[in-house]
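Design request, tokens follow.
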């Protein structure tokens, strides 16, 4: 029996509607939803942020550039940079001078593996009233150590490259990571300097800071300050944690009673990372920003740890970064209460931001972690720091 045309059209419409209804319920999440679970329920950067608690020293007499600046403590702004990165360095300097250093005039110390050009020195000095120092890194601090087997290095970097480890085949990148991990504070130019603020070319600073951050570190007994806390690529550090455990087996006494071991070994948030990094969460302070006390790196515990790692060869056979190396050492050998989140310092190194909610900030979007792809939210490890240590 033939079905009447209107009835056929009606049943077809009903079927289409039914499938549409099912699709609405079961369709795969849209790309933005897919990453939503990685976002913090409430980013603390959305809350009004003022200055940190504790003793703060304001700008004023004693902070003039040069010998009149007797209020300054033993500290420097510090940048490892290539001559070719001059423009990016000038931009970073402009931001930091405008928001902070024009009030305090701390000296800048620039490091390079080759001499700085006259143009680099002239243009950087022109950005600040403070003293600028230009230092060449001694060869024995920079070059690949004698115990590294060149053939093995080549083979290993090939494998790392295949696993997608960024910059794995750039020898200079490995050298840079090693220098930042265990060499920079040994440079003779820093012999009498205690605190540093690390600055990379092209980074941005957004908020006015009206206290002396170095004195904040000293007067409030802080060792290390960070802004951003991220996961690392586990493929770049598969044996870093196993080597660390070997070291700890020989030196259990170096572990601080108030350590951040649970933050270092978390496997709840990203179990895959912990597994691939053989027990390390890969959470680290993003070390392109660091305000720290070099006495920690100069301690016997850190010196022994760095030497152990250096001999193990992973700065070259793998691509151990200074960020995980510094972070592991701090998490193990330092009192976690001496590590400070500088939530009030608005900062960007592509592609991540720290952007607090404060009238002192201009040019960044409050609470925005990244302006890159939404999957980058997966890399946010701040929730773990807040969970295990807090927001101090
Ligand atoms: N003088 C010198 N500086 C270097 C060298 N390699 C890296 N640097 C500096 O070391 C810092 C870190 O290097 P980057 O290339 O920015 O490394 P990164 O931050 O991991 O990588 P990006 O995400 O691409 O910025 C920057 O301040 C660079 O200017 C080098 O071979 N010589
Ligand atoms: Mg960089």
């Amino acid at each position: 029996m033939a079905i009447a045309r209107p009835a056929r059209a009606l049943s077809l419409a009903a079927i289409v509607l039914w499938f549409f209804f099912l699709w609405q319920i079961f369709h795969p999440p849209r790309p933005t939803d897919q990453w939503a679970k990685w976002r913090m329920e409430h980013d603390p950067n959305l809350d009004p942020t003022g200055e940190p608690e504790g003793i703060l020293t304001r700008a004023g007499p004693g902070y003039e550039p040069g010998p009149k600046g007797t209020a300054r403590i033993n500290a420097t702004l510090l940048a490892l940079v290539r001559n070719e990165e001059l423009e990016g360095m000038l931009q970073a300097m402009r931001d930091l001078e405008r928001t902070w250093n024009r009030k305090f005039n701390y000296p800048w110390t620039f490091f390079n593996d080759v001499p700085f050009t006259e143009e680099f020195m002239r243009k950087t000095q022109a950005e600040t009233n403070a003293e600028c120092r230009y230092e060449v890194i001694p060869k024995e601090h920079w070059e690949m150590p004698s115990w590294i087997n060149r053939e093995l290095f080549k083979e290993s970097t090939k494998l790392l490259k295949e696993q997608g480890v960024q910059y794995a085949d750039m020898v200079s990148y490995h050298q840079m990571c090693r220098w930042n991990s265990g060499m920079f504070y040994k440079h003779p130019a820093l012999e009498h300097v205690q605190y540093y603020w690390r600055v990379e070319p092209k980074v941005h600073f957004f908020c006015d800071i009206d206290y002396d951050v170095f004195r904040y570190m000293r007067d409030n007994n802080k060792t290390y300050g960070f802004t951003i806390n991220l996961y690392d690529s586990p493929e770049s550090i598969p044996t870093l944690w196993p080597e660390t455990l070997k070291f700890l087996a020989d030196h259990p006494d170096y572990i601080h009673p108030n350590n951040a071991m649970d933050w270092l070994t978390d496997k709840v948030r990203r179990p895959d990372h912990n597994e691939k990094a053989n027990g390390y969460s890969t959470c680290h302070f993003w070390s392109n920003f660091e305000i720290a006390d070099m006495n920690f790196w100069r301690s016997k515990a850190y010196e022994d740890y760095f030497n152990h790692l250096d001999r193990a060869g992973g700065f070259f056979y793998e691509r151990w970064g200074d960020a995980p190396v510094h972070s592991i050492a701090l998490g193990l050998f330092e009192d976690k209460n001496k590590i400070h989140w500088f939530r009030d310092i608005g900062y960007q190194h592509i592609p991540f931001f720290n952007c607090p909610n404060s009238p002192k900030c201009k040019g960044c979007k409050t609470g925005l972690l990244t302006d890159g792809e939404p999957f980058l939210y997966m890399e946010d490890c701040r929730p773990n720091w807040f969970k295990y240590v807090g927001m101090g």
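Comment from the thread starter after seeing the answer: thanks! The pocket of guanosine-5'-triphosphate (ligand 1) is lined by residues 80-82, 85, 112-113, 172, 176, 200-201, 288 (CB under 6 Å).
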